[in-house]
Structures are given as structure tokens and as C-alpha cells.
Design goal:
This protein is an all-alpha fold. The chain is 46% helix and 0% strand. The protein contains seven helices and no strands. Residues 172-213 have low confidence and may be disordered. The protein binds heme C. The site of heme C has 25 residues, from α3, α5 and α6.
Length: 213
Amino acid sequence: MGFIAKLFASLIVVLIAVVGFVYSGIFNVSAQWEDPALLRWLLASTREASVESRAENIKSPILGSATQIKNGFRSYREMCAVCHTPPGGTDSPIKQGLNPSPPNLAVAEDHAMTEAQLFWVIKNGIRMTGMPAWGPSHDDAEIWDIVAFIKALPTIDADEYQRLNTQTTQGHGHSGSEPMATTQGHMDNTDNHSNPVEEVPAIEYIDNGTHAH
Ligand code: HEC
């Protein structure tokens, strides 16, 4: 057999093996088995490099105003806390079942990302993980508000989070003890007979030196 014929024969064998593997059901698609260390490293490194390069040319606006943080908080409570666990909260069943596990964004070391990188990740999501893209449903200004909130998150403890929760839930000024990750159902604004919502005081914006560029 000539070289070309051998190569062709080998390709056919590989193709049959791949198709056989796909249809055999041998591969376990369960979310429950942990990736082997090498695969984990490969996926994490690919993700990091991809986010870094794609966020390189994004310019962050000035972030950290009280209004931005309040808006970002609302989005976080409604869309992120269920997976990323709010300060003082416990891991939801969704977080417990996700593989890879969503990092705790309240811990600064767990998300040493620049503002631009956070923006890119929130807008685009991370494929093949549970991290959704929020770009299809939110405009850039709304996403920057979320970035501002996440940058402030390491300075927000459980009490502060609960205070924001109370202040941004109109008509529920007295509901300080409501469980936080589950307030969506109480956002009905129907009994707003109570005092107008107070202005949220500015939370000190910490720039933790993660600006790589
Ligand atoms: C359905 C669950 C889920 C929801 C809802 C969710 N995330 Fe995620 N998120 C994840 C998972 C899982 C990862 C980890 C991906 C990985 O390891 O590559 C992640 C990763 C991230 C990261 C990257 C952190 C890092 O250091 O790698 C950021 C930032 C982030 N999410 C922000 C948000 C924000 C902001 C929201 C709400 C607007 C949100 N996520 C909503 C599941 C979720």
C-alpha cells in the first residue's frame, strides 16, 4: 500500500471509531462527574485567555455611583444571586448542581477580573458552563451597573446586602428579614403605602488593583 492509501485507510478507521463512540453511549454526559485535572486546566486556561484577549479593547466608563450600585444590586439579586450566592446567603440547589461551580463573586480573590473582563463575561456568558449571556436581554449601561455592583461586592457584608434589599424593594421597607435570594416573588409593589424609598448611601468603591492594562 502506498503512503496515501495507508493514510486514507487510517482516516476511515478513526472516523468509524469516532462515530461508534458517539452512538455507543459510552460517554457520560452527567453533570456530576468531576473533570480530570488536565481537562480542568485546559478548559480554565482556554477560558481565561479567551476572556482576556476579547476584553482587551473594552473601555470601562467611570463606575461606582450610588445609583449604579443600586441598579446593579437589583439585577444581581434577581438574576445572579441564585447561582453566585449573595453575602450571608447559602448555596442554592442550582449552584450545588452546577459543574463547573459558579464562583463566589463576593470573595475578591475568586474573581480577580478587570472591569472590562467582567463586562465581557456578563454580556457574552461562558459557553459550556451554566453562565448565561445577558447581552441579548440587557443593554450596555445595565451591564456596567452590574459590573459596578460586583466591584463593590467584596465590601458588602450580609447586613449591608440586606439593607440594600430593603431599600430597593419598594413598599417593603419593613421587610428586612425576608430571605434574600427569594425576594423576586415579593416585588409586586402593591402595598406601597409605606414611606418613600430612602436614597441609598454611596458604598465606597474599591479598586482592588486588578487593572491589568
Ligand atoms: C445559572 C447559573 C448562573 C447564573 C444565573 C449566573 N451565573 Fe455567572 N457563572 C455561572 C457559572 C457556572 C460560572 C463559572 C464558569 C466557569 O467556571 O468557567 C459563572 C461565572 C461567572 C463569572 C466569571 C468569574 C470568574 O472569575 O471566572 C462572572 C463575573 C459571573 N459569572 C457573573 C455573573 C453575573 C453578574 C450574573 C447575573 C447577571 C451571573 N453570573 C449569573 C453560573 C451562573
